[in-house]
Write a structure and sequence with these properties.
- The protein is mostly helical.
- About 25% of the residues lie in helices and about 0% in strands.
- The chain has helices at about 1-10, 35-40, 60-70.
- The radius of gyration is 19 Å and the shape is elongated.
Amino acid sequence: MANMVSILADLLGKPVEDKTGLDGVYDFSMEWTPDAVTERSLKPGVEKVEPPADSQTGPSIFTALQETLGLKLETKKVTVGAVVIDHAEKPSAN
């Protein structure tokens, strides 16, 4: 689940927390159609892959997770730690 959480966080561009309580290794496949949510969060240098023009659109990643794996992503507001740098200087020569 830790790997899946990491992948989902990258795809969604938001923190994702595993609250399933599931341990172990799982083998599954899932198909979804990229949408505005997943496309805008692609990391720099990652190519957007266009589906074939004749392909039908599939479910969103949220629907695919629920229908395929029985998992649901819920949006919550939580406190997140942050580091604030007030001042930075180049090191002096020794």
